[in-house]
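Person: Please comment on this record:
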Amino acid sequence: MRLVVYAVLLLSITAPAFAGESKTPLPPTYRMDVVYIFEMQKAASAPESIIVIGNSGFRSLAALKRFVASLPQGAVLEWAPGCMQLGGELLLSSAKDMEEFKALCKDRGIAFILHPSG
């Protein structure tokens, strides 16, 4: 009986240590989306588009880059913008901006996964 008590006691002490070693947290994954705002001042004006990551929205590329630069190294940023755009969307309207954004992600150790057609 004592042997069983000692075995249970030993397992209860050492099991959490072994369990903690085998679990490595996965890098966080973020999803980027384009959101259109249809509250227009003029009837003929095109809707505004912003990029949203989680609960944060970005109207400018500079603000988006600042936010992405603050993500932890090893993070994953996924984007599936789809193949239908209305025009003027951040990153999608400029190949140069897209390449600079990809370079920023690479420099910061962020895996940027682009699914071009959704």
Observations:
- The first strand starts at residue 29 and ends at 37.
- Residues 36 and 107 are 29 Å apart (CA to CA).
- The mean pLDDT is 81.
